[in-house]
Amino acid sequence: MRTDTGQVFHLKNYKPTDFVVERIDLTFELDPVATLVVSRVILHRRAGVAEDAPLVLDGDELTLEGLQLDGEDLDHALFTATPDSLTIHGLPATAPFEITVTTRIAPEANTKLSGLYRTKGVYCTQCEAEGFRRITYFQDRPDVLAVYTVTVIARKDEAPLLLSNGNYLGGGNYDEGRHFATWFDPHPKPAYLFALVAGDLGVIEDSFTTQSGRQVALRIYVEHGKELRATYAMDVLKRSMRWDEEVYGREYDLDIFMIVAVSDFNMGAMENKGLNVFNDKYVLADPETATDADYANIEIIVAHEYFHNWTGNRITCRDWFQLCLKEGLTVYRDHCFAADQRSAPVKRISEIRVLKAHQFPEDAGPLAHPVRPASYREINNFYTATVYEKGSEVVGMIRTILGREAFRKGMDLYFDRHDGEAVTIEDFLACFAEVSGRDLTQFALWYSQAGTPSVSVSTVWNEATSVFSVTMEQTLAPTPGQSRKQVMHLPLAYGLILEDGGEHVGTPRSGEARDGVLHLTKRKQTFTFEGVPSRPVLSINRGFSAPVTIAMEQSAADLAHIARHDTDGVARWQALNDHATLHLVAAARFTRDGRPAPDGKELADILVATAADESLEQAFRAQALSLPAESDIAREIGSNIDPDSIRSARETVLAEVARAGRDVFGRLAEKMPEVPYSPDALSAGARALSGVALSYVCLAEGSPQRAKTVFDGADNMTVMTQALQVLAHQFPEAEETTEALATFESRFEDNPLVMDKWFAIQAMAPGAATLDRVKALMDSPHFDRQNPNRMRALIGSFTSGNPTGFNRADGAGFRLLCEEVLAIDQRNPQLAARLLTAMRSWRALEPGRQELARLALVAVSGVAELSTDVRDIVERTLAG
Ligand code: BES
Ligand code: ZN
After folding, report:
1. Out of 66, 110, 175, 542, which could bridge 571 as a Cys pair, Cβ 3.0 to 4.6 Å?
2. Relative to the CA of 128, which ligand 1 atom is closest?
3. Looking at the predicted structure, is the pLDDT value of residue 880 above 90?
4. Which of 775, 776, 777, 727 is nearest to 756 (CA)?
5. CA 507 to CA 519: how far, in whole Å?
């Protein structure tokens, strides 16, 4: 394991490399325990760099087998090699030179899933962020761009398939039983985009003709026998390629585009140039084994990785501090893509839910950091909701501020100006400033200030003068390392809904406003509207135009008015959701104090009416009926959290809604979409609605019978898991539940991806008793601690999807997580660190739980042999 050096990297210390790489030729002689890697690199000293400056190459757990300069063995006095660096002295002052570095690595023994490793007998690489240095010594940083030629040699029987980035140059027999293939990628790229895959895989093939008429071969490689399950991913790939041409004018730039699905992968997928590697969970799908959510994820991830070809690959990051430059922007692009493929408001609603559920708590806790961090100890810990989701929101705000046309112009300029470069957020912003003539200096604070801004809003309506004024004040709480904050630019979309449900048009007399957006740029600002004919209800931050929290005294009646009349679907949902949240927070407080819960009739009525309203999209109704989760309520309460009272209050409210809508839900639960199954948004929406309805009606009936019938009759995985979840969560002790779980297990035991759903559903069954269930499931023959998907399905679902189970009053949940983190840390530090982030909100808990959480964290930090990854997370979590 790489021992933690405690080294901290700072954005302000950026310096270009002393040596410039021109080309790199790699040869791999693959072997499970002793792969030989020969790297020939042509470099030259950068102008102005001292003549005695050595070349320093990065390594990670490497051993050097040979080193040559221009083909001659290098004198031992001229270099120093350690497992994590190679320093070479005495290199030419100006002339280009070639160094040949030979290393030997053991893919089979590489359990970190970073660098070159094996998964189910397939050789595969993962180089982002710093995995290339686990393959060979190199200047492993994103601003070192080179043209790669890669030759892969392997035994034909073991690896009939030999892949790398770029276009296929040629190949053939090598020596006894071995063959080779050579790939050439003409586009200069950083090492993190290098990829190699070799093994025995099945394939589906297709082709795509680009806008300009070039033919591109498309291939998706999967385990033999699973080829047909990749057809949906292939369809998405073609739609993504077309979309990027139509919406951004961006064409694909190689003769071939490949995706490989592997079953051991730390992340979702990786955008290696021309050779994307995917977690098989995000490639394989058919109706019997994948849910609507799985299909939707595949759509997003295939598109996301494809879109990186321009935002990330052709234009990459200068350093890892700029990660949001590629990730935030590409998430923004995949959001827009999905909005175009599906119902835009429903898509936006789910984005808002994800942002609030994942990014807001991160921003409010000890792991808070800016969208562009200023320092890090371990870059792998910065692939966060903040960099991704908030990073995407920031791009969305640029578009809101500039408008559609200027935004596109800015993107065009960015592509034009920086193609082939490694750039910064400043370079990106400069393009938008230039095309729009706007000063984005204040806006740029979104990249450097952590924390979620809060806006308090008050309104005054003067009936006599028909003047309506809105006063807003922004605050931003301190976050780790940032005690004082500057005033930000918050673009808040708005509407004034009049008494008759119509909307008042007109911009305010005072305060900056354009195209339905109020621009809050001062700490406190008043926006005054004149000639408003009746008392309006303010709909603010429509569509979540800025990722902020709004504090506004708005009555349930006003929220209901917005929910009924707003022209914006997302705003209607926001009002409903705010209404539900207000009520649930009050209910949780009352329950905690032992007071009877507040009357929920008004909320129940509006939800039932929404459920029954056939003028609304089914997917929208499903979203409206999904009450804020226990974790959402906890976040609103903010401190001194008692998860048990939140759960019991929420269940009381659910039961009230269920009773009020029993007949409506009963009807909806029976209204299954017509067969055959199709994953499109419309039918998925229908299933989502019947799914929530099923859960309400079972609650009202107090019997598992109906869910069991649905389970038994289900002909697709979506309906099957909906029913199984109702059984396992509402009726954990029922015989029907035991039976359904057993049926599911015996039917899908050969499909680990489906068994992950079985693990996750059980792990998320609310209540203290689930902890023992989780422990028992870890001994199940279907469980495998080494596999990241299994760990996330069981441990990850339990810790982030089961507040009452994980936050058990006796601290056993925290201890379980911390033990598992330590057990996995030696093998796979990235996975361990990511799992540990589930502790990030520990300080918001009531004092008893807080102390137990602290003790569990202290126990982790007291272990001497921790990876840098876990050390970084545990120390920040305890400190913040
Ligand atoms: N570049 C990342 C994958 C990555 C991140 C690899 C960190 C290694 C270390 C990729 O583009 C990505 O962001 N994938 C996401 C899914 C995406 C849809 C947001 C993932 O893997 O979760
Ligand atoms: Zn990405």
Report:
1. 542
2. 8
3. no
4. 777
5. 12
